[in-house]
Design goal:
about 90 residues, mainly alpha, 2 domains, about 40% helix
Length: about 90
């Protein structure tokens, strides 16, 4: 037998084993109990130390706010003369 004949025989054996497994799988899946979806998580109240939307808006009023493709925002002042942005 040549190398290619051996490879072909191994491939056919793997295919036959895979077909045998898939033929057995639906019967096993039907006997298993259905899995319930996870319960929704309870919403947490905001912590007192977290900045509110009003203070966050006041902080961003002074910044450029330009966003790059990955979602980072520019930390330079609004209307900066520099051509490049500094992202964080």
């Amino acid at each position: 037998m040549s190398k290619m004949d051996n490879l072909r025989a191994m491939r056919e054996a793997k295919y036959a084993a895979a077909q045998k497994r898939t033929a057995e799988t639906p019967a096993k899946a039907a006997t298993r109990a259905p899995v319930a979806p996870p319960a929704p998580k309870a919403q947490r109240s905001p912590s007192p130390t977290a900045p509110t939307t009003e203070t966050a808006a006041a902080d961003t009023d002074e910044l450029c706010g330009h966003r790059n493709m990955s979602g980072r925002t520019c930390t330079r002042e609004r209307g900066h003369a520099a051509k490049s942005h500094r992202y964080s």
